[in-house]
């Protein structure tokens, strides 16, 4: 089946590497000059690869290209159908089908009464707690989500007054936010977008500033992760939401202040993806100033925004700007132990590993990935950056490093395909 933009499917025909690269690059809306710059090469070098004038690059360069183009299955880029490696999507969580069924359902009649709002809030609190504390957090929230989705939808339909309906919409928006964490990096991008859009709609209907901010934060991430062609959309969502929230900050609750800070950092994250160094660090500084206004022990339940997270955010900015030395310096300053959330702590370890890899310290990178696996196995299992490092070091010239990378590949389930 051909994609909607009319370009040929990169694995429907036996295309060579260069042709696949051109198709996948074009789909992501990236020019040859942009891709070449991010690889430390020229646009003409990319053209040479695509036209076959230059030979297929080595594995480390292929993996870097796959990372930049967010290629989900490495075989899509290489054409080697005998060795599938899912990079930015796992094989699909066992709970995905049940969650998808709940999202896709459209029940219009029921004899069942919706649970009270206090009950839904308590279940959501339990789900968020599990998401942050359980090493198998996807399994736990994947179990809870189907009933939460159905009950939150029912609460909206059965609301008697405008006030009750808006409150129910705020709960539903939060349920979709939790759902988006589950469906991210799963092999169903259409489901991710359905969840993100429904979250935005429910949040707008709620007229709740915090719900609106959270839904926008997740929508901006979805746009940014879709590739360079969607960076403008990510920025637009951020700008509009910040313009809505900022006038409310003088009297805002900690949660509203935190989601505003999280959105401010997201703007810097997208700027870093663009390679805009000054803009990225300016937004980080602004977000840090907002974090400093929060209580020392405050931790936002959805975004993890807090004083403790700003060090981790600094590592991410440096890594996305491909500043290896700065990444390592920021990693030394950040204290991962202070991050209460296990998946967020694991994600920070992965970002640190990317920094060590950029800085030419592959052994430290692998050791850091092992720490990420200890913190939250279900986070690293679905992370493409971690898999890229493992794949690259599995072909290292140093035998001990190859063994370590291979053992980690087995832990991540990368050989299952």
Alpha-carbon distance between the two ends: 23 Å
Radius of gyration: 22 Å
**Which percent range describes the beta-strand content?**
under 5%
- The succession of helices and strands, N to C, reads HHHHHHHHHHHHHHHHHHHHH
Structural class: mainly alpha
Shape: globular
Number of helical segments with 4 or more residues: 21
**Low-confidence spans: pLDDT under 50, at least 5 residues?**
1-8
**What is the helix content?**
55-70%
Q: What is the makeup of the main sheet?
A: none
Number of strands: 0
Mean of pLDDT: 89
3D architecture notes:
The protein contains 21 helices and no strands. By secondary structure, the chain is mainly α. Among the domains are: 17-78, 434 Repressor (Amino-terminal Domain); 92-207, no CATH class. The longest helix has 22 residues, at 162-183.
Task: Outline the fold blueprint.
Layout: H1 17-27, H2 32-38, H3 43-51, H4 59-68, H5 74-78, H6 96-104, H7 117-133, H8 137-157, H9 162-183, H10 189-206, H11 209-225, H12 231-245, H13 254-274, H14 277-292, H15 310-320, H16 324-333, H17 342-358, H18 362-375, H19 377-380, H20 384-393, H21 399-411
Helix pairs in contact: 1-3, 2-3, 4-20, 6-8, 7-8, 7-9, 8-9, 9-10, 9-11, 10-11, 11-12, 11-13, 12-13, 13-14, 13-15, 14-15, 15-16, 15-17, 16-17, 17-18, 18-20, 18-21, 20-21
Précis, in short:
With 417 residues, this protein is mainly alpha-helical. The chain has helices spanning 17-27, 32-38, 43-51, 59-68, 74-78, 96-104, 117-133, 137-157, 162-183, 189-206, 209-225, 231-245, 254-274, 277-292, 310-320, 324-333, 342-358, 362-375, 377-380, 384-393, 399-411.
């Amino acid at each position: 089946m051909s994609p909607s933009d009319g370009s040929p499917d990169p694995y429907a025909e036996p295309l060579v590497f260069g042709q696949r690269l051109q198709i996948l690059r074009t789909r992501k809306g990236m020019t040859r000059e942009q891709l070449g710059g991010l690889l430390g090469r020229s646009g003409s070098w990319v053209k040479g690869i695509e036209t076959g004038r230059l030979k297929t690059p080595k594995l480390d360069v292929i993996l870097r290209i796959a990372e930049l183009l967010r290629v989900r299955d490495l075989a899509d880029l290489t054409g080697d159908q005998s060795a599938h490696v899912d990079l930015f999507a796992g094989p699909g969580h066992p709970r995905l089908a049940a969650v998808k069924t709940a999202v896709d359902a459209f029940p219009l009649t029921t004899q069942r009464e919706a649970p009270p709002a206090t009950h839904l809030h308590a279940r959501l609190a339990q789900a968020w707690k599990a998401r942050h504390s359980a090493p198998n957090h996807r399994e736990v929230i994947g179990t809870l989500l189907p009933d939460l989705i159905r009950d939150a939808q029912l609460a909206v339909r059965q609301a008697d007054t405008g006030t009750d309906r808006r409150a129910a919409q705020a709960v539903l928006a939060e349920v979709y936010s939790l759902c988006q964490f589950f469906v991210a990096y799963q092999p169903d991008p259409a489901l991710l977008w359905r969840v993100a859009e429904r979250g935005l709609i429910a949040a707008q209907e709620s007229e709740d500033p915090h719900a609106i901010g959270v839904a926008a934060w997740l929508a901006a991430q979805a746009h940014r992760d879709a590739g360079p062609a969607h960076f403008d959309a990510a920025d637009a969502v951020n700008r509009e939401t910040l313009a809505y929230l900022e006038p409310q900050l003088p009297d805002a609750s900690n949660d509203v202040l935190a989601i505003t800070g999280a959105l401010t950092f997201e703007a810097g994250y997208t700027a870093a993806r663009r390679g805009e160094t000054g803009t990225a660090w300016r937004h980080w500084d602004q977000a840090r100033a907002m974090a400093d206004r929060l209580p020392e022990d405050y931790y936002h339940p959805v975004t993890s925004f807090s004083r403790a997270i700003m060090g981790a955010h600094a590592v991410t900015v440096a890594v996305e700007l491909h500043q290896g030395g700065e990444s390592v310096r920021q990693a030394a300053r950040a204290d991962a132990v202070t991050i209460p959330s296990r998946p967020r702590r694991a994600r920070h370890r992965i970002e640190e590993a990317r920094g060590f890899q950029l800085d030419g310290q592959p052994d430290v990178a692998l050791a850091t990935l092992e720490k990420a696996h200890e913190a939250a196995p279900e986070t690293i299992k679905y992370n493409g950056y971690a898999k890229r490092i493992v794949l690259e070091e599995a072909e290292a010239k140093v035998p001990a490093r190859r063994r370590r990378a291979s053992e980690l590949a087995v832990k991540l389930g990368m050989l299952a395909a």
